[in-house]
Write a structure and sequence with these properties.
- With about 425 residues, the chain is of the alpha+beta class.
- About 35% of the residues lie in helices and about 25% in strands.
- It contains 15 helices and 16 strands.
- Strands 5, 9, 11, 12, 13, 14, 15 and 16 form an 8-stranded mixed beta sheet that branches. A 4-stranded antiparallel beta sheet has the order 4-3-8-7.
- The chain starts with 7 loop residues before the first helix and ends with a strand.
Length: about 425
């Protein structure tokens, strides 16, 4: 693994900024041939200079993999795709955006006339959903396959959240969180989207107090907080606090828009349960099993029986989202060596309370990460095209066609964030 690899996009920026304008750039020792849109703003020069190592590092890096195909207008494998140029440590942003862009329902939402009218309202011109929607639409401009320079997006993103200002590296998870919450906050409207998931679930029979809690939460959310984001990405879980003296339980419902699995803890639980073969490997199903483990409560005061005794606390998945995002928290140091095994198809009917028969998913996107912490290293994306169903590797502006999904191919790429889509929306 190369530390601080040469940033190809910054090198191309420097070529332009130093007034050496090349429509075709060939590096003889690497075999690369590139065509880029050189419309680079002058103020990026400082960031490029601060984040570009020596050209020799580039030549050394390119010896490791001469099979990477660089996006250009003559490449039939990637002619309908657009990369995102790295404008100083923005690989975390580029990989996250590509995964969102490959969600067809999200792209279709921003293509609707109603959404276009909303984006064109003067009062919304500075809102994040306008900025995000324009970028998603631009990535699927089939008449232009030149890599995009997302400097306007990055600049406005930094103005909205100081965490993303300047050339400082960031964690893809932090941007993912911001995108989901900011879009939902700006777009939540009970009349925006028609989705029957919250309506249908009220037909299930539950214990009286649990049903009352669920009905109150579901109706309040459905009537006041709905958005395209909640309809696609929000699920519902509940916590149960149980008194072991009188066996009464209290329930609390809350939404979630992604799940975080601590791989080191999952592995330890698997070892303690006697199911590990000491290869430091866990499966995605091990993660969901770990998510259901109950925790003991000492000196628990029960409001039902008015006694202080032993209790139990657990979290359960009640309703799964149409698109489930899974963050694999590897930690740092030795914990980072935990391997995760996952498949292109995912069956979660044994881990959810409702809609068990509609709990089948297919993998559509993976953010991968090389490095010992989320705020350093390099991020890339592997995405399944909604147009032809093929997998592609997005390394900033570079795009490579992948023949097909294999566990070995994807697991060895250090998966960090997984995007799974339901095969049947509810």
């Amino acid at each position: 693994m190369i530390k601080n690899p040469f940033n190809l996009d910054n090198f191309v920026n420097l070529v332009k900024l130093s007034k050496q304008f090349f429509q075709n750039l060939r590096v003889k020792k690497s075999g690369y041939k590139m065509k880029f849109d050189f419309s680079v703003p002058e103020h990026l020069m400082k960031d490029c200079l601060l984040n570009t190592p020596l050209v020799g590092d580039f030549l050394q890096m390119t010896k490791l993999d001469k099979k990477i195909k660089v996006l250009n207008s003559n490449d039939s494998d990637t002619e309908h795709l657009r990369g995102l140029v790295n404008i100083a440590n923005t690989c975390y942003m580029n990989s996250t955006i590509q995964c969102f862009a490959h969600i067809s329902e999200l792209y279709e939402y921003f293509q609707k006339d109603k959404t276009h009218n909303l984006m064109n309202e003067p009062s919304n011109k500075d809102k994040f959903f306008v900025l995000f929607g324009e970028l998603i639409i631009s990535l699927w401009n089939l008449n232009d396959n030149k890599p995009l320079y997302p400097y306007i997006f990055k600049e406005k993103l930094g103005n909205m959240n100081p965490l993303f200002q300047g050339p400082i590296p960031n964690d893809a998870k932090d941007l993912l969180t911001f995108i989901l919450l900011q879009l939902h906050e700006e777009l939540n409207n009970p009349n925006n989207v028609n989705n029957n998931q919250m309506n249908n679930i009220l037909n299930y029979n539950m214990q009286a107090n649990k049903q009352a809690m669920f009905n109150s939460f579901a109706n309040n959310f459905k009537n006041n907080y709905r958005s395209i984001i909640s309809d696609l990405f929000f699920g519902l879980n509940y916590t149960e606090t149980k008194c072991l003296f009188c066996n009464s339980s209290l329930f609390n419902y809350q939404t979630f828009n992604f799940l975080i699995f601590p791989l080191a803890q999952v592995l330890n639980n698997k070892i303690q349960s006697g199911y590990s073969d000491n290869n430091n490997e866990v499966t995605l199903y091990d993660c969901f099993q770990y998510n259901q483990i109950s925790s003991p409560l000492n000196d628990y005061y029960c409001v039902m029986c008015k006694n202080t005794s032993q209790g139990m606390y657990a979290t359960y998945l009640s309703v799964l989202p149409n698109i489930i995002i899974i963050i694999l928290n590897r930690g740092e140091g030795l914990q980072y060596n935990v391997k995760i095994k996952f498949d292109e198809n995912l069956n979660l009917k044994n881990y959810v309370e409702y809609f068990k028969e509609d709990s089948f998913y297919e993998l559509i996107g993976v953010v991968t990460h090389y490095g010992q912490s989320g705020a350093s290293g390099h991020f890339m994306a592997r995405c399944k095209s909604p147009i032809n169903g093929l997998w592609y590797l997005y390394n900033d502006a570079l795009i490579k066609k992948l023949e097909y999904f294999t566990y070995e191919n994807f697991s060895e790429s250090n998966p960090y964030i997984l995007f799974y889509k339901k095969t049947k929306f509810v």
